[in-house]
Write a structure and sequence with these properties.
Pfam family, one: UbiA
Number of helices: 16
Number of domains: 2
CATH class of the largest domain: Mainly Alpha
Radius of gyration: 26 Å
Distance between the termini: 96 Å
GO molecular function, one term: protoheme IX farnesyltransferase activity
Low-confidence stretches: 1-5, 11-44, 361-365
Oligomer: single chain
Transmembrane segments: 135-157, 163-183, 190-208, 220-241, 262-283, 321-339
Shape: flat
Organism: Petrolisthes cinctipes
Strand order of the largest sheet: 1-2
Main location: mitochondrion
Strand content: under 5%
Mean pLDDT: 84
Length: 365
């Protein structure tokens, strides 16, 4: 009996302390609905100091910001820019309608993939400081709502690519959604190879842009994809270095967690590879030799920062490398477009006719 009395006293003390507990300030999806006194004789009644919580209705005025968060708007913006760069580098003449369809379609495809990724990773995002405030983790949007948003984005995006560009561009968009959501996302839990798969995902947008313009995957498209692929490693590996506690706590198999030495070596290797890839562009007549010369200082400095990251293996060197990659890629894309090899009128018309035939196939009788 004394034991039971002691338990009751402890429970009362525990209840009493609830008045000192403040709700997590970022948990906007819950609200305090009062501290109404309840009659003690009611069966199952809450203690006087207990807080009653309930879900808050979606704020329609904030839906735009919620959808931007689900889409990872900054990442999607970068994806769209690389898609536009791919279109600009192709040999066919500019078609504004196709360019707009290609850009918006790729953006919607990216938004869909990012949303599905967040739906799958809610249990793990809640354990990471970097992602614990995402709207699905906080309950601002329900999973069903997010699924509907992703479905609408993917369907609309692929249709825009198919009808506004061509079937090849639409196929690449669909493949990228599947690659990101069904292969890359689950692989993060099991193997460090996820980084290589994720780099393929990042290399596909310029292919979508190029094929939207020409209707084919030419050599130049693969060079652009190679540059995007190589860039992912110094970019992501330096980012993940300072997120090791988060990734480890959430159970992600990242190079920076399971093999830190390999993480730094890979970042350095692919930084060096950028020099070769940028030199390859004029060799195959995608750009003039000006591009190889102008891009060399950027790539040398990228390699230098990657070497410092490899040697020092600290947060300062990784942060410097990461920040420079954000400048490096747009600069390389801009230099590539400026140094684009201008084809003759006949070659341009041939490329345009191929693109138009892809958009408007005819049936021969």
């Amino acid at each position: 009996m004394l034991h039971v009395d002691q338990l009751l006293k402890d429970s009362r003390k525990s209840i009493q302390t609830t008045k000192d507990i403040q709700p997590y300030e970022d948990m906007e999806y819950i609200e305090r609905v009062g501290q109404n006194q309840v009659k003690p004789e009611l069966v199952g009644a809450l203690p006087p100091n207990a807080l009653d919580w309930r879900p808050q209705k979606i704020d329609v005025m904030k839906l735009g910001s919620y959808y931007a968060s689900l889409s990872k708007d900054r990442l999607t913006g970068l994806v769209v820019l690389t898609t536009i760069a791919g279109y600009a580098m192709a040999s066919a003449p500019l078609d504004i309608t196709t360019l707009v369809s290609c850009s918006l379609g790729t953006g919607l495809v990216s938004a869909a993939a990012n949303t599905v990724n967040q739906i799958f990773e809610v249990p793990y995002d809640s354990q990471m400081d970097r992602t614990k405030n995402r709207i699905l983790v906080r309950g601002l949007v329900t999973p069903v709502h997010a699924v509907c948003f992703a479905t609408l984005c993917s369907t609309t995006g692929i249709c825009m690519l198919y009808f506004g560009a061509n079937g090849l561009a639409a196929s690449l968009g669909a493949v990228n959604i599947l690659l990101y959501t069904c292969i890359y996302t689950p692989m993060k839990r099991f193997t460090i190879l996820n980084t290589w798969v994720g780099s393929v995902v990042g290399a596909i947008p310029p292919l979508i842009g190029w094929t939207s313009c020409t209707g084919s995957l030419d050599t130049g498209a693969w060079v652009m994809a190679g540059i995007l692929y190589a860039w992912q490693f110094p970019h992501f590996n330096s980012l993940s270095w300072n997120l090791r506690p988060d990734y480890s706590r959430a159970g992600y198999r990242m190079m920076s967690v399971t093999n830190p030495g390999l993480c730094r070596r890979v970042a350095l290797r692919y930084s060096v590879a950028m020099i070769g890839l940028c030199t390859l562009a004029p060799v195959i007549d995608v750009t003039t030799w000006t591009f190889a010369v102008d891009s060399l200082p950027l790539n040398i400095y990228l390699t230098f920062l990657a070497w410092r990251f490899y040697k020092d293996s600290d947060s300062k060197s990784s942060r410097k490398l990461f920040m420079f990659t954000l400048i490096h890629l747009p600069a390389i894309m801009m230099l590539m477009i400026i140094s684009k090899k201008h084809y003759g009128k006949k070659q341009t018309e041939e490329a345009a006719s191929i693109s138009n035939s892809e958009k408007n196939p005819t049936v021969k009788s």
